[in-house]
Predict the structure of Ribosomal silencing factor RsfS.
Amino acid sequence: MELNAAIELVTKTLDDGKARDIQVIDVTGLASFTDCMVVATGTSTTHVKALGGMVEQAFKDANDPCLGAESGPQPEWMLVDHGNIVIHVMTEQARAYYSLEKLWQVKDDAPKATVDSSNV
């Protein structure tokens, strides 16, 4: 799947699942393992796990399954690896602690997720 289509699929799926603060981070040239990261916040560990599962299922439904996913039984952070895009779904506390956006220094020209709140 082309990168922009994958980003659109992920951001729409996360938005449909009521994820908060969805951010797209372009790490092209900064990371050798992926081109893009999507970071989103879930309201609880149950929500985090559900959102990660929704993203995995969305890629399966598009006949483009993920490479893998990692989380614990009560995940504060779930990672879904799709190769050219890595999705991080975290609780608010984990997201504040790890500050991935600061770690990867979000570029001003990075693609941003837009959410149409009129459908909410």
